[in-house]
Q: What sequence folds into this?
């Protein structure tokens, strides 16, 4: 008896296809592909597909960047462009992509572009998306001193007006910047 082989599509290969989705599956998928350039290319490509697939792929990309943002550096511009295009209704995807874009921005130009995107995310209705923006601007300002004034303003606003989750992210971002010398030199640096 000959069995028909199932075609290995990118979603199936990356474990993004149907089935229950959650944090553990996202982390397991990230661990399985983070060192495989071909799989990472497929992951980024999957973000340009169907809405549910895009959300899952963005979640996995977020988990990859938690361990090694450099793994997705080759796709930094592509991911920032995607974040700018994803509709606001896809708040979960935008939340994940916001962190991915902030973590993968490795040139000054990319960090400045990512900061503009974080400012836009911070004005959205979705709390999780705004939380992502606060965390993202903190990461960017840690690497790009010229963004510290923008980061300080966003962080202070989040501390004043944010939800408990947003305030927690803002406190974390503020501590990160203070540790990097924000307090010593002020938000704009020496």
A:
């Amino acid at each position: 008896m000959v069995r028909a082989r199932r075609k290995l599509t990118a979603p199936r290969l990356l474990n993004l296809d149907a089935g229950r989705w959650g944090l553990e599956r996202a982390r397991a998928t990230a661990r399985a592909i983070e060192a495989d350039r071909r799989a990472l290319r497929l992951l980024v490509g999957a973000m340009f597909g169907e809405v549910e697939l895009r959300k899952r792929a963005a979640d996995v990309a977020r988990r990859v960047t938690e361990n090694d943002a450099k793994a997705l550096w080759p796709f930094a511009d592509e991911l920032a462009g995607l974040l700018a295009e994803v509709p606001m209704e896809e708040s979960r995807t935008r939340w994940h992509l916001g962190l991915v874009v902030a973590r993968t921005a490795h040139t000054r130009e990319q960090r400045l572009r990512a900061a503009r995107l974080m400012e836009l995310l911070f004005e959205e209705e979705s709390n999780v998306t705004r939380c992502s923006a606060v965390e993202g601007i903190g990461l960017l300002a840690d690497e790009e001193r010229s963004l510290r004034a923008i980061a300080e303003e966003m962080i202070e606003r989040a501390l004043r007006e944010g939800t408990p989750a947003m305030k927690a992210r803002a406190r974390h971002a503020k501590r990160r910047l203070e540790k990097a010398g924000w307090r010593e030199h002020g938000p704009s640096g020496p």
In short: The first helix runs from residue 10 to 13. The chain is about 70% helix and 0% strand. The CA atoms of residues 28 and 167 lie 29 Å apart.
